[in-house]
Amino acid sequence: MRTTVGIIGAGPAGLLLARLLHNAGIDSVVLESRDRAYVERRQRAGILEQGTADVLRAAGAGERMDREGLRHDGIELRFDRTRHRVDFPALTGGRSVMVYAQTEVCKDLIALQLREGGPLLFEAEALAVEDAGTDTPRIRFRHEGREDVLECSYVVGCDGFWGVARKAIPAGLTQVFERTYPFGWLGILADVPPSHDELVYARHERGFALLSMRSPAVSRLYLQVPDGTEPGAWGDEEIWDELERRFETADDWYLQRGPITQKTVTPMRSYVHEPMRHGRLFLAGDAAHIVPPTGAKGLNLAAGDVVTFARALVHQQETGSPELLDAYSQTCLRRVWQAERFSYDMTTLLHRAPGATAFEDRLQLARLERIASSRAAETDLAEAYTGFPFG
């Protein structure tokens, strides 16, 4: 097999890239190790920045998102039993975010790719990227019980942290920056309408809590828990009781309870691999960087990466200049590090570290009070949350 761009991974990054390339008249092949049903039910991110939503619309993948997604014009911060709303449009010149689950983004992009795009091979396991430093990289993969080779002009690894793409970059050329956090998120899905119409980020002396949603009838909520916690270690009523404590306010707001249908635990880490390019191999999304979910940046960073690559490849084909492709890593990393900074700031602002001192507690409250009382500080949060520019 031969194609211009070989894409490893049919998550939102790989699928969006395939769509952008199709619209630009550039052929691609997508290899995905899992089956279609797994990809379409894989629960991940649910917040789309303004820029990500705009890209999906421009790519022809925004119709169902605009019909079924939930536009949010702000978030609420809770601390010391007080509530403060951050108004995104008022602080950013009209920008907002969209609550639309990654599973739904993938369903939309898969349907478009199968109907209009190039080959999308499920249960096609990428085994290795070969000759990445040459003009003729190859992806060795296994599909339908036999090994095959996909010859490419370019390879884009959208295959996540555990994928093969990053391994093709020589260790001597790389730098890794990472931080692990001593806590995680216990997340639940519950068949109950959300108790607030926007996301609620709560800082409490017992730990962080987040109120989110997947739809008007399904709530998504999270609790800070010690690192290594097993999902089954918490009973349903125990979870609701703890959420109630951490979301407590001085007014008459209350938390609605309902049947819990799913429990998961998400570890918290920050990770950046530099560079994001070697020869004609380009890394995108979790293959190159991971952020703690507090800032809602993971999927959006991946979208920014593939938009940057697609624009650079179109520029090269139209002008003959490799300038933008050569700058891919530096261009993406500027945005990545701003997102890492914001995600770290939000995490340390809202989570209580094990063994935190009274001094550290007071600093957290002072930072939150600064956001609630300073338009400049509030604007900085709103601009970062709604998204850094692509490219």
Helix and strand arrangement:
Layout: E1 2-8, H1 12-23, E2 28-31, H2 36-41, E3 47-48, H3 50-58, H4 63-68, E4 70-72, E5 74-79, E6 82-87, H5 88-92, E7 97-99, H6 102-116, E8 120-121, E9 124-130, E10 138-143, E11 146-157, E12 175-190, E13 199-203, E14 209-215, E15 218-226, H7 236-246, E16 260-274, E17 277-278, E18 281-283, E19 289-290, H8 298-319, H9 323-326, H10 328-350, H11 358-373, H12 375-386
Parallel strand pairs: 1-2, 1-11, 2-8, 5-13, 11-18
Antiparallel strand pairs: 3-7, 4-7, 5-6, 9-10, 10-11, 12-15, 12-16, 13-14, 14-15, 16-19, 17-18
Helix pairs in contact: 1-6, 1-8, 8-10, 11-12
Could you explain the architecture of this structure?
With 391 residues, this protein is of the alpha+beta class. The chain has helices at residues 12-23, 36-41, 50-58, 63-68, 88-92, 102-116, 236-246, 298-319, 323-326, 328-350, 358-373, 375-386, and strands at 2-8, 28-31, 47-48, 70-72, 74-79, 82-87, 97-99, 120-121, 124-130, 138-143, 146-157, 175-190, 199-203, 209-215, 218-226, 260-274, 277-278, 281-283, 289-290. The strands form 3 sheets. Strands 1, 2, 8, 9, 10, 11, 17 and 18 form an 8-stranded mixed beta sheet that branches. The protein is globular. The protein starts with a strand and ends in a 5-residue tail after the last helix.
Task: List the defining traits of the structure above.
391 residues, 36% helix
